[in-house]
Amino acid sequence: MTAHGANPTLLYLPLLVHQDANVRRQACEIMLSTYGERSLTFLRRLLDATDPDTQAQATQALKVVSEVSGLRIELRPFRGIYVECLGDLRVYINGRDIKPDEWAQYDRGRAGARKVQGLFAYLVHMGAQGATRDEIGVAIWDGVVSPSSLARTLSSLRQVISRVGSPELAEQALTVGRDGCRLEPALYQTDAGLFERTFNQAYQTEISTSLEPAIPLYQQARELYTGPYMADLSRSSDWGQETRDLLMNDYVIATERLAEYEYQRRHYQRCIALCREALEADPTAEDVACWAMRAYARLGLRTELDRTYQRYQAIMALNPYTSEEQDAVEQLYCELT
């Protein structure tokens, strides 16, 4: 996993302002094919960057995208909410991140701050359907929540959005009714959603064509995955675990597809590095272990091949769902040795 902040278009910025027109055009086409018009939102967020050079490059990049694509583009900073759900939770409003002490400012201390931040994260997790008061009580308070406690926490959340963003944004983004509340999905984006869309596009590209055209998309998906879903929120292990597992599985698949591609190109060391990364996330990933063993065999690294097999077997021995039948890893190990 590679961390590059909340803005994936930073990877494209040097290419979009490159002096070679062909490089600029190709970078624009790849970026738009990967992120679609969402990439314009990311570039516009850079117009608020603290570094003047980044601001200038973002302005130039937006002009290049407009010229190449014919899209109408607003040369003004992005206004809205962006949420990093992968790894530690970070929230940006109008390009500025909410500091830890700002969650606590309106709800008296660290315990209150965790409730405000947790409520925000849970509403992001629930998406367009929102959450009932009972669901919020279970997810955030681990049981029933009193009307006064929920009202106080909702008020604190609204004030955070209002202070960092604007009162209008807070009013539009947070909807509270008799039965529950929700965050308006049209007013925020998440890295988890972007990762899912990029991975699905890569997968569909591979299914409809072949692996090679999907590689840039798999690479972008891998870049976007910066850690387990909402990993730093203590109660998210209850309500977020299914999503966390699904996203991690997609990340492992993306990395495995890249490992196969590198193996096919006889870049065995790169294949091994990718496999190690994926096995760190999921030690039971059968296909990944197989590509690592094949690459070690090609390089004549018998000791590393044996270690990969032994680690996999040790992990699977602890898995209560392991089948007694010979799996693909064991079968391949017998073939290679």
What would you say about this model in short?
The chain is of the alpha+beta class and 337 residues long.
Notes on the protein architecture:
The protein is of the alpha+beta class and 337 residues long. It contains 17 helices and seven strands. The chain folds into three domains: 8-69, Leucine-rich Repeat Variant (Alpha Horseshoe), CATH 1.25.10; 81-189, Arc Repressor Mutant, subunit A (Orthogonal Bundle); 266-337, no CATH class. The strands form two sheets. The chain has a four-stranded mixed beta sheet. A hairpin with a 2-residue loop joins β2 and β3.
Please render the helix and strand layout as text.
Blueprint: H1 13-16, H2 21-35, H3 38-45, H4 52-69, E1 81-84, E2 90-93, E3 96-97, H5 100-104, H6 110-126, E4 131-132, H7 133-141, H8 147-164, H9 167-173, E5 174-176, E6 180-183, E7 188-190, H10 191-208, H11 211-224, H12 236-239, H13 241-264, H14 268-281, H15 286-299, H16 302-317, H17 328-336
Parallel strand pairs: 1-7
Antiparallel strand pairs: 1-2, 2-3, 4-6, 5-6
Helix pairs in contact: 2-4, 6-7, 6-8, 8-9, 10-11, 10-13, 11-13, 13-14, 13-15, 14-15, 15-16, 15-17
What labels would you give this structure?
3 domains; three-stranded antiparallel β-sheet; four-stranded mixed β-sheet; Leucine-rich Repeat Variant; alpha+beta; Arc Repressor Mutant, subunit A; 17 helices; 337 residues
